[in-house]
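Quick one: co-fold with farnesyl diphosphate.
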Amino acid sequence: MSQPAASQALAPSPPRHVAIIMDGNGRWAKARGLPRNLGHRQGIDTVRDIVRACRTLRIEYLTLYAFSSENWKRPETEVAGLMDLLRLFIRRELDDLWRNGVCIRMIGDRTKLAPDIVQLIADSEAKTRDNRTLTLTIALSYGGQDEIVTAARRIAEQVAAGKLQPSEITAQVLENNLETAGIPDPDLVIRTSGEQRLSNFLLWQTAYSELIFIDKLWPDFSAQDLADAVIEFQRRERRYGASE
Ligand code: FPP
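Sure, here it is.
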């Protein structure tokens, strides 16, 4: 059997987990004189394209920041519009996602969501739970600080109940109590629209993630832009704090 070419043997693998802060829908709409919700609507089409592209690029986990805990402060009509789009997305795409091996998960505070959305999410999670091609996690009513506080509270309850010693609390214990338990940390975080911050997204999990900020607004972000970000990721050398 012939040896693979050196370039092939050393070909870096794609990021296993990509997390995306989908930003810029409002600016996209404003630039066209349209209401903000039409920007979000256009953003849904990008979501569909990017989910497909992840399968092509052999990305195993995709996490999308759809609605932050702070987004509840937006005008009521915008919040209602975003929730309608989420309903639309799940109803329209669920069968296709299921057939294509996508496992759907949701992280975030479900207590603030309308009961029909909670039900829709629970049904999607149940229907797709055995799928393994791609895990699509939707962060909805999500805040990274809240997630860590909730994990700390759960651990404190275990200590108070005598099930855990304070000396047994490790990073692993904290991770096991996060909503993302069982999902590897993101290798790559992408934020569109040119803003350069994490905005309370996966604060614990992104400790060693590569960050790529892209100037395009989310509705303009394409499968090719994702492929380019993956190439940029593969060029970077990840050392996890080691010197060489
Ligand atoms: C940020 O743009 C985007 C959001 C707050 C919502 C993103 C949601 C979607 C694309 C639709 C729902 C998602 C799924 C997964 C079905 P912005 O409004 O902050 O834009 P701006 O910064 O230009 O004002």
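If it helps, The helical segments are 6-9, 25-31, 36-56, 76-99, 115-128, 144-160, 171-176, 223-235.
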